[in-house]
Fold:
Amino acid sequence: MVNSLPEVTIYCDGACRGNPGPGGWAAVLLFPQGGERVLKGGEKETTNNRMELTAAIKALQALDVSSAVTFITDSSYLMNGATIWLPGWKKRNWKRKEGALANIDLWQALDREMQRHQVRWEWVRGHSGDHYNERADKEARNAVPAD
Structure:
């Protein structure tokens, strides 16, 4: 069966100056017809992990219709959380085996957004020359608020 959902490839990244400290996030959305859209934002006091999650959430929220999404990230935290750890957290009522789940608000928001789409995750090594990963990194760093 052929997938009839519109396709989009998303590269996302987060950045933080200090951890915690001021941070930025960015997502580059690529459409098969050749179009692209860049989303970015920042917060004055945050963590790198929160910015990674925010980039993914904001990218999915920007899609008006259910889509077949290929997510490409250099964040093992985001990749493992979304593909490996999330089902266990949900079974344990949003708790880790060791107790409280950090960034629960963002993990729950990401889970809600992923339910709207068919999401496939790919990991890419950061700063390895992947054009769009480097671009997402640059946009995220540029979105970090000035002190």
Notes: The chain has one domain: 7-142. Strands lie at 7-16, 21-30, 36-46, 68-73, 118-123. Residues 7-142 form a domain with the Nucleotidyltransferase; domain 5 fold (CATH 3.30.420.10). Helices lie at 48-61, 76-91, 104-115, 131-142.
